[in-house]
Each structure stands twice: as C-alpha cells, then as structure tokens.
Amino acid sequence: MLQLLLQGQIAVFILLLIAIVIALTFHEFGHAVTAKLYGDDTAERMGRLNLNPMSHIDPMGLLMVAIIGFGYAKPVITNPRNFTSRWASMVVAAAGPGMNLLLAIFTYNLYVFGLEQGWSLFIGDGPKFFFTYLSIINLVLMIFNLIPLGPLDGHYILPYLLPRHLAVKYQELNSRYGAGALLILVALSVMGVPIFSFVINLGSTILPYITFV
After folding, report:
1. How far is 128 from 124, CA to CA, in rounded Å?
2. Which residue of the set 28, 44, 116, 172 is catalytic?
3. Active-site residue 28, yes or no?
4. CA distance 191 to 189
5. pTM score, two decimals?
6. Sign of CA pseudo-dihedral 43, 37, 94, 13
7. Exposed, middle or buried, 76 (CB in 10 Å: 0-12/13-18/19+)?
8. Sequence-separated (6 or more) residues with CB below 8 Å from residue 142
9. Going residue by residue through the chain (213 aa), what tens digit of pLDDT does each one get?
C-alpha cells in the first residue's frame, strides 16, 4: 500500500486504510461478542465488546498494513474454561470471519440498492471504489483467517472437522511449525511471490455471489 502514497494516490490510500480498519474492527468484535454469548466475559472486561476501532486496532499492526500490505489487529483474549459449550472455541473462532462475510454482504448490497435508488451518497467513482473494496477486503480477510495455519482462526476450527487422532497430530504440528510457516509465506508474498494471490482473487470472485439486490 505504501506504493500508493509514492504514486501520489493519497485518496485511494486513505480509503483503503479506512476500509481495512473497519474490516479488522468488525472481525475482532465478532470474536468478542460471540465469546460473551458463550459465557466468557474476558473480552468484555478488557473493553473489547464494542465497535470502537481504538479498542481493536494495534498501531504496529496497522503500520505494517500501510507499509507492506499485511498486518494484524489486537487479538481477542478468551478463557475457554468459561465457555458453556464444547463447540464454543470453534464458533468463537469462526465468528470473526463470519462477521466479515456479513459486513461484505451488507455493504455491497446497500451500495447496489442505493445506486439503483439514485442516492447521492452512492453515486460516483469514489463511493463505488470505497464500497466495492470494503466488501472485497472483508471477503479477503474472511478467507485468509480461515487458513488453518499458525494463529489464524482456521487453526481453532480445523480440529473440530478432523478425527480425534488427526486433530491431535495437527495441533501438535501447528503449535511447533505453524507460526513460522505463516511468517515465511507472508514474507515471500511481500517479496513478490504470489503466495496469497488465490485469496485475493477468490475474494473478488465471490462478490457477485453475495449480491442479492
């Protein structure tokens, strides 16, 4: 994204950064509110049960997004001992990507509807760019976080989908090598190797299929 600034595309940079902040905020809020629903108020006591970006955005993580295109938000801390269901860890993990999917559906359908109604807020290249990319960024964030590697949400979900012996083996391997493998993949992607191109392309491909207006 830093390249946008170097090319003088300041407005595009700002709109993308705002979209990323919104997507990350809703993602983390999804984790927090779902944990609360399953009996764990750890996130609530830490001030995470809200949609204030200041509660969820990590300054260094956001700076990384601005510079290299990859970053992170503050992780939502949970205490599984407080959960009221054995499925809670999976559902709480899935709630972040799920929130991104819901936001993408709402955002893009609202944009299409507003455009059809001739509402001035949605007319022009600026609104088209912002609402389209806000939707795509949410879809990309959803897909990326479902990858069962390292600390990503997918690593909480996959064990529930595997036979017990495979789940145990996967958890052992991921705890040892997952974070390192993810960092290597991110580093290669930043260096220009199209490691995560499929994630970005898939996000754009899904957009027409969530348009119902």
Report:
1. 6
2. 28
3. yes
4. 5
5. 0.94
6. negative
7. buried
8. 97, 98, 100, 101, 104, 203
9. 778 888 888 999 999 999 999 999 999 999 999 999 999 999 999 999 999 999 999 999 999 988 888 889 999 999 999 999 999 999 999 999 999 999 999 999 999 999 999 999 999 999 999 999 999 999 999 999 999 999 999 999 999 999 999 999 999 999 999 999 999 998 888 888 888 888 888 988 999 999 998
> 20 and 26 in contact (C-beta within 8 Å)?
no
Contact (CB, 8 A) for 186 and 150: no
- List CB contacts of 175: < 8 A, sequence separation 6 or more: none
Say which residue the tokens 């754009």 belong to: 204
How is residue 125 written in tokens? 């290249």
Structure tokens at 145: 């976080």
Tell the residue number behind the tokens 């809670």, with chain if given.
88
First-to-final CA distance of the chain: 31
Q: How many residues does the chain have?
A: 213
% helix / strand / coil in the chain, to the nearest 5? 75, 0, 25
Concatenated DSSP letters of 3-57: HHHHTT-HHHHHHHHHHHHHHHHHHHHHHHHHHHHTT--HHHHTT-SS--HHHHB
